[in-house]
Every structure is written in structure tokens, then in C-alpha cells.
Design goal:
The chain is globular. With about 400 residues, it is of the alpha+beta class. The strands form 3 sheets. It has a 4-stranded mixed β-sheet with strand order 1-4-5-8. The chain has 10 helices and 10 strands. The two termini are about 20 Å apart. The chain has 3 domains: about 110 residues, Butyryl-Coa Dehydrogenase, subunit A, domain 1, CATH 1.10.540; about 100 residues, Butyryl-CoA Dehydrogenase, subunit A, domain 2, CATH 2.40.110.10; about 160 residues, Up-down Bundle (Butyryl-CoA Dehydrogenase, subunit A, domain 3). The model has no long low-confidence stretch (mean pLDDT about 95). Helix 6 runs parallel beside helix 8. It is about 50% helix and about 15% strand. Bound molecules: coenzyme a persulfide. Coenzyme a persulfide binds next to helix 6, helix 8 and helix 10.
Length: about 400
């Protein structure tokens, strides 16, 4: 039997989040983009509403909304402002997941609880100047040193790098193989000696989220900073990315829906050749295509979120096949989601004509914001590689 509908609580959650985002975030979105400014006041209000710990269980200070509730939140944010989706994604999907799935009880108390309450922001530091798609080729090292480790290296593209109090960083504790053995995850706190920030990137989109270089210049961390055990860092990173890719898909879903909404509104108002352009088949076909892809995106997003929820948050209990299926479907959702959002904002902009190309239009910002989703949390080429390799290896399951 397949039964798939949102619970009453989830419907209420969507309503509450939509109201919040429309009232608190939408009025600021253009300014956040123009100024390239971290939306501190909104993030603070989101923390009070429990949104910074949405998928984290209540016992760790979260809202306990599960994966589906979290995707509802991300979808509603995606309708309004992708910068905030990016901030939350790096904090909650990547950072908090690393701690929730692999942290010790003590680490959860110390780092996850304040993150879930929104008292501390997390930055997830995996990528480096020479290691992006090939995540196992990182050069940052962590050398055993007395009662802990000394971390040295530099990280790039660190979302929330500027605002974070907690950094999840990946480093080699042994020569890393191409499959990531030898990589270890650590939790590092702002203020530790040797941790510093470099350049902040000036970006074409998601301008409200900071993207930083982070330097680890001999940062000494105690032994209990290791997340998931020495040499297990690659799994920690990959699991966090699997979880992140599902919520990114939800954010893309929200953007796609908003792009349709804007296209429909505009096409009903814009009169050419004596009637609204919505009555032209050329426009109807565009809206149909946007609608079909977005509906499919809705299915894959929530289906994958539901599967991830069923798997639970203790990877030691997962069967290998289950893990691989999740990885495959999360990659599909991320790839299809980001391309659907790019398609929808592009078509919506086309329907708007010149009006969509000027700075004052919402679709212009959405067009710039959408592009990164085909690149970050693993390029779509990497997602296709993950999907293709897995289907060839395990068949169509
Ligand atoms: N979850 C848990 N463990 C995983 C995993 C996952 N999703 N993916 C891989 N692993 C572990 C497994 O132990 C795996 O071995 P098995 O499949 O036999 O269990 C092992 O790592 C090797 O995996 P794989 O063979 O897929 O490694 P590759 O180096 O060939 O490929 C890719 C790894 C390319 C998939 C990985 O480097 C990647 O996702 N790159 C993109 C990085 C990224 O998203 N960067 C964005 C940074 S954050 S904005």
C-alpha cells in the first residue's frame, strides 16, 4: 500500500512557515541581495521559531520536525530567498547532520544543542583550493600531537564561514586513498589559536550568505574533537552531503514553484496582440513544462526525505544497500531539483521579457540565485556520476 499525504501538523507547519517567510523575509530579500548582507535579524527570529534546529530531535534542542518537516521548511524558504536556504543548509543539513549522525553524546550536548537552538552557527569545511569534486584529495592535515591533533591547511567555499562559532573540518590523519580512507572529521571552535578567515567571495547569487576562505594554521584540538572516529571522516562528509542534497532539492522545489507563480501572474496581466499573453499557446506550453517538472520534483523530494527518515540517524545500523540507495536517490533529487529550478527561473524570466531582466524584478535575483545549486554540494556532473555508477553496479532497484 502506498499512502502519501502530509499530516495535519505538517500542513500547519507549512502555513506557519509561509506566513513567517512572507512577513519577515520577503520584505528584506532585495536588500539582502543588493547589499550582500547576512540577514542576521531574520536568522535570529528563525532561531526563536526553532527553524535552525528543524530536523534535530527535541532531546538535542531541535524542533523534531524530521526530514519531511525540514523539507517543508526548506521549500518555503526556497520560494522566498535562496541565501537563507543556503545558510540553513550549511548549518543544519551539513553541519548539524555530521554531529547528529556521527557525534558522541557529549559532542551532541556541547555542539549540536546550541546549534539547534540557533545560539551557534555551523560552517562545514570540506572543499579546498585543490579539492572540490574530488573530495578525497584534500591536503589539510591533522597530526597527532600530545593530547590531541594539530590541524594545518586551508579551506575554500565555506558557507557561514564568517558568522560561524563551530567549524566541522575534514583533514588527513593518514595518507588519504582515492576512496577517502585516512580522512578524519573534527569539530573546531571559533577563537581557537591558529584559526583565521581569509577572503570573502563576491558572488553573482546567494549574496546574503558568506562564502569564505578558512585557514587552519596549526590549530591544536583535543582528542575528543574527532567526529565518528579517526579515518571515518569521508563517510561523515558523504552522509552529511546525502542529507544536504535532499534539502537542497526542497529549496529548488520552492524556487521552481515561485517562478511558476510569478510567470502566471505576469502572463495574465501582460496584454499583447489584444489579449493577455497567458492565452497564447507559446506561453501555456512553457508553463506546462515548468509545472510538469516541478510536480516530479515534489515527488522525488518528499519520497527521498521519507526514505531518509525511515533509515534513522545511526549509520552503524544501516545495511550497505540501503545507504547506497539513499546516496543514489539524494543525488538524483539534487541534480533534478537544481536543473528544474534553473529551467523554471529561466522560462519565467523569458515570459517576463525585458521586465524580468531589470534589477528591480524578483525573477532577476532568482535567476542568479538558482545557478549555484547546479554546482555546490557536489556538481551535477558528480551527481550523475554517482547515479550512473550505482545503477551500473547494482542494477535498477
Ligand atoms: N555515505 C557514506 N559513505 C560513503 C558515501 C556516502 N554517500 N559515498 C562514499 N562513501 C564511502 C564508502 O565507504 C565508499 O565505499 P563503498 O561504496 O564500498 O561502501 C567509499 O566512501 C568510497 O566511495 P566512492 O567509491 O564513491 O568514492 P570516490 O572517491 O570514487 O567518489 C565522490 C566520491 C566523487 C562521490 C565524492 O568525492 C563526492 O561526493 N564529491 C563531491 C564533493 C562535494 O559534494 N563537495 C561539495 C562540498 S560541500 S559544499
Amino acid at each position: 500500500m502506498i499512502e502519501f499525504e502530509f499530516t495535519d501538523e505538517q500542513i500547519l507547519l507549512r502555513k506557519a512557515v509561509r506566513e513567517f517567510m512572507e512577513e519577515e523575509l520577503r520584505p528584506l530579500s532585495a536588500e539582502i541581495d543588493r547589499e550582500g548582507k547576512f540577514p542576521e535579524s531574520v536568522i535570529r527570529k528563525m532561531a526563536i521559531a526553532g527553524y535552525l534546529g528543524a530536523p534535530v530531535p527535541e532531546k538535542y534542542g531541535g524542533a523534531g520536525l524530521g526530514k519531511i518537516g525540514y523539507c517543508i521548511l526548506m521549500e518555503e524558504i526556497g520560494r522566498v530567498d535562496a541565501s537563507v536556504g543556503t545558510i540553513l543548509g550549511a548549518h543544519s543539513s551539513l553541519g548539524s547532520s555530521a554531529l547528529l549522525y556521527y557525534g558522541t553524546e557529549e559532542q551532541k550536548e556541547r555542539y549540536l544543542v546550541p546549534a539547534a537552538k540557533g545560539e551557534k552557527i555551523i560552517s562545514f569545511n570540506l572543499s579546498e583550493p585543490g579539492a572540490g569534486s574530488d573530495a578525497s584529495s584534500i591536503q589539510t592535515t591533522a597530526v597527532r600531537d600530545g593530547d590531541g591533533y594539530t590541524i594545518s591547511g586551508s579551506k575554500m567555499w565555506a558557507t557561514n564561514g564568517k558568522e560561524a562559532s563551530t567549524y566541522i573540518v575534514f583533514a588527513k590523519t593518514a595518507p588519504a586513498s582515492e576512496h577517502g580512507e585516512g580522512i578524519t572529521a573534527f569539530v573546531v571552535e571559533r577563537g581557537m589559536k591558529g584559526l583565521s578567515l581569509g577572503r570573502e567571495e563576491e558572488k553573482m547569487g546567494i549574496r546574503g550568505s558568506s562564502t569564505m576562505q578558512v585557514f587552519y594554521d596549526g590549530v591544536h584540538v583535543p582528542e575528543d574533537s574527532v567526529i565518528g572516529g579517526e579515518g571515518k571522516g569521508f563517510q561523515v562528509a558523504m552522509t552529511s552531503l546525502d542529507v544536504g542534497r535532499i534539502s537542497l532539492s526542497a529549496c529548488s522545489l520552492g524556487a521552481s514553484e515561485r517562478a511558476i507563480e510569478l510567470a502566471v501572474d505576469y502572463s495574465k496581466k501582460r496584454v499583447q496582440f489584444g489579449r493577455p499573453i497567458s492565452e497564447q499557446q507559446a506561453i501555456q506550453f512553457k508553463i506546462a513544462e515548468m509545472g510538469m517538472r516541478t510536480q516530479l520534483l515534489r515527488y522525488i523530494t518528499y519520497m527521498t526525505a521519507w526514505k531518509a527518515e525511515k533509515l534513522g540517524t545511526d549509520p552503524s545500523k544501516w545495511k550497505k544497500e540501503e545507504r547506497r540507495q539513499l546516496t543514489r536517490e539524494a543525488a538524483m533529487a539534487k541534480c533534478f531539483g537544481s536543473e528544474t529550478a534553473s529551467f523554471c527561473v529561466d522560462e519565467s524570466l523569458q515570459i517576463h521579457g525585458g521586465v524580468g531582466f531589470v534589477k528591480s524584478s524578483e525573477i532577476e535575483r532568482m535567476y542568479r540565485d538558482a545557478r549555484i545549486s547546479e554546482i555546490y554540494e557536489g556538481t551535477n556532473e558528480i551527481q550523475r556520476m554517482i547515479v550512473g555508477r550505482d545503477i551500473i553496479r547494482r542494477g535498477w532497484v
